[in-house]
Amino acid sequence: MPLDGITGSVDAATQAAALAQTASAKKSQTMDSEVFMKLLVTQLRNQDPSSPMDTNQMISQQTQLATMEQITNQTTTANENFSLQMRIAAANLVGKQVSYTDASTGTAVSGTATAVSYANSVPTVTVNGKEVDLDVISGIKAA
Length: 143
Prior knowledge:
Elements: H1 12-27, H2 33-45, H3 55-91, E1 97-101, E2 108-117, E3 124-127, E4 130-133, E5 137-141
Antiparallel strand pairs: 1-2, 1-5, 2-3, 3-4
């Protein structure tokens, strides 16, 4: 970035270009299939004709990328399934007698679950007018 010799400030055009470059760098810092394909095409265009790229290595790289994408997809699906299971478990508590340990007092509390909220990443269950995280509930008894 060129600096103004008198004030030491950066001109507006240079600053805007630097901000745009930073934003695009933050946008995609992981290697996805699109980036891989661009790199592969560039590599093929610029390869030495007397020493072409090893096709076995190229296929290996593509296989590794495909494997990584499948693992990423499976992880996303597993996280969504876990979230759905937590929501179902919380909804099934409504109308049941539940117990938990109050974090502020350390005492055991029990009461009937009257409502469920999905506003946070962990569902909360309303017991005796107090919202309690689902993972804090330690016991369930049919009402």
